[in-house]
Task: structure prediction
Amino acid sequence: MHEWALAEAIVEYVKKALREANGEYVERLSIVLGKLQSIDREVLGFALREILRMENICVKELVFRDEDVELLCRRCGYRWVLDLDSFDEWVREAIHFVPEVVHSYIKCPQCGSHDFEVVRGRGVGIGEIIVK
Ligand code: ZN
Result:
């Protein structure tokens, strides 16, 4: 259900972009999915295509791009990219369903602190939209 609300928001954005550019169709739409979120891309892709079809909007190319998770330590200021593949599957699954648990499993590689913030890779956004 999450995915459908998100798809609707993306379609609203697409409609606005088409209006503003006075365009006829969308050549390419790329959606950025942070690796630290629990969106099902299959469901999102399906929801998007359904809503676009109902709205009569043509999107020639719809692509999804993963965004790495970048963390910033609040204690020492170290920034690093999280390698999710280095975790056991059950940890990855836990992080996938409850992104907040990332704080229990991960610590700053520099100072060992669990006090860090997620700079990138949490949300969903529009990477690129080309209107024709
Ligand atoms: Zn640190």
Summary: The pocket of zinc ion is lined by residues 73, 75-76, 78, 108, 110-111, 113 (CB under 6 Å). The chain has four helices and six strands. The chain has one domain: 2-131. The domain at 2-131 is CATH 3.30.2320.80 (hypothetical protein PF0899 fold).
